[in-house]
Amino acid sequence: MKASNDHMKRKLLIISSEFPPNPGGIGNHAYNVAFAFYKKGYDISVLTNEPDHKVDGDFPEPFPVVRIKRAGYQTYWNRYVAARKMVRGTHDILATGKFSLWLAYVLKIEQPKLTVTAVVHGTELNIPSIWQKSLTERALQKADRIIAVSEFTKSLLSSWNRLKCLVIPNGIDLDQFDNDYEEIDLMMQGTPKLLTVGNVTRRKGQHQVISALPEILKEFPNTVYHIVGIPTERATLENEIERLGLKDRVIFYGRLSKEELNHAYRQCDVFVMLSENQPNGDVEGFGIAIIEANAMGVPAIGSKGTGIEEAINGENGLLADSHDPKDVTEALKTIMTNREKFQKKARQFAEQHNWNELIDRYVAFMMK
């Protein structure tokens, strides 16, 4: 792919705490921003962490990506040394994720002429550690501009930082969902087939879906719940599944390749993300997987009181009280009864979150 020549001489360093092939919404966001800027003609370089494992072919990188291996406290120094080399001749820095904000803060102190844009997702704003929270606040105060992925995330900023903040929602590269892949049969069972994609943790809310299943099965006795993602807390969920007698109603897949994931979206009936805000400050700032499911024409059910409220508008899916199985079941009934209408609106909603359009808002805000 050849980049546009409009901004060929404009250099942009993206510092991200996550980046593919490692999973995670922050990394997904950083990759798509980098790729969209690259297609606009920017000279892009990325500084991130070394991946836990390689997934070949999933994420083409037409720009340099420097990955720093984790080595305890030495990691911070190694990141700093690499960043100082990479920032030479760079006009702008975009920092996304906790350590990235801190590193950009140090670089801005050393080189005041740098323009720093901080991207906040939510989890970095509710850090329980007092000193980390203070350092993050200082980094955001030092940044020239702040982009929040949702109004929910913006509300977590201090009043002073909200003054220089613009909300630009997460997006997707629609081209990745429009390709004609060779069909992969994942043998997904159930009617309806429910799907959650994300790290298996309390924040992502898979436990809430499992808690709602007994109620759901009263209305839809052939329901099967499919869980895709790193199985961090799988053992805990399996104990709950055993207790509720749902062993044949929940299937774990672990992590899937990008192509397999697209087929999982394609083969499911309803995407479910009953995220909950955690006491340690871990929150769902938006819920990009909902937009990915929408791109495949799959409507979603999401939890109220989280950033997911901005990823579901009542037409591409429905919000529900994640702690109320009856409310979740009613949302599912409504979607299944009006499935074709929800499927059409889901795709339309995804088209409104295409990075080809969203990146213009980044350019206008960052380069003004």
List the keywords.
seven-stranded parallel β-sheet; 368 residues; six-stranded parallel β-sheet; 2 domains; 14 helices; alpha/beta; Rossmann fold; globular
Explain what you see.
This protein is α/β, with parallel strands linked by helices. It has 2 domains: 11-171 and 353-366, Glycogen Phosphorylase B (Rossmann fold, 3-Layer(aba) Sandwich), CATH 3.40.50; 177-351, Glycogen Phosphorylase B (Rossmann fold), CATH 3.40.50.2000. It contains 14 helices and 13 strands. The chain has helices at 25-39, 74-86, 98-110, 130-142, 151-154, 159-162, 175-178, 206-219, 234-244, 258-267, 288-295, 325-337, 339-351, 355-366, and strands spanning 11-16, 43-49, 65-68, 92-96, 115-120, 145-148, 165-167, 193-197, 224-228, 250-254, 270-273, 300-303, 317-320. The chain has a 7-stranded parallel sheet, with helices on both faces.
Concise overview:
This protein has helices spanning 25-39, 74-86, 98-110, 130-142, 151-154, 159-162, 175-178, 206-219, 234-244, 258-267, 288-295, 325-337, 339-351, 355-366, and strands at 11-16, 43-49, 65-68, 92-96, 115-120, 145-148, 165-167, 193-197, 224-228, 250-254, 270-273, 300-303, 317-320. It is an alpha/beta fold and 368 residues long. It folds into two domains: 11-171 and 353-366, Glycogen Phosphorylase B (Rossmann fold, 3-Layer(aba) Sandwich); 177-351, Rossmann fold, CATH 3.40.50.
